[in-house]
Specification:
Layout (H helix, E strand, L loop, with lengths): L10 E8 L5 E11 L6 E11 L10 E6 L9 E8 L3
Parallel strand pairs: 3-5
Antiparallel strand pairs: 1-2, 1-4, 2-3, 4-5
Keywords: Ribonucleoprotein, Ribosomal protein, RNA-binding, rRNA-binding
Protein name: Small ribosomal subunit protein uS17
Function: One of the primary rRNA binding proteins, it binds specifically to the 5'-end of 16S ribosomal RNA.
């Protein structure tokens, strides 16, 4: 019988925009998307709610997050590491 192989979880890198909640923060992930018709590159922003167990992130920090099971109504991501602290 084959061993079951789990799909790799998605990872994103984003900047913290809010850390007012307990054990949670909101990050923005910015990506460049090419317009289908005109070919111009546009910036698209996605907001993700992240689980931060130790309340260690601050506004402006750059962090890496990983997809996880639903933790609350809106939280589906968890903190992996802090890449860069805000100046």
């Amino acid at each position: 019988m084959e061993a079951t192989v789990r799909n790799l979880r998605k990872e994103r890198i984003g900047k913290v925009v809010s850390n007012k909640m307990d054990k949670s923060c909101v990050i923005t992930v910015v990506r460049k998307v090419k317009h289908e018709k005109y070919g111009k590159f546009m910036t698209k922003t996605t907001k993700l709610m992240v689980h931060d167990e130790t309340n260690q992130v601050g506004i402006g920090d750059t962090i890496r997050v990983m997809e996880t099971r639903p933790l609350s109504k809106n939280k589906r991501w968890r903190l992996v590491e802090i890449l860069e602290r805000a100046k």
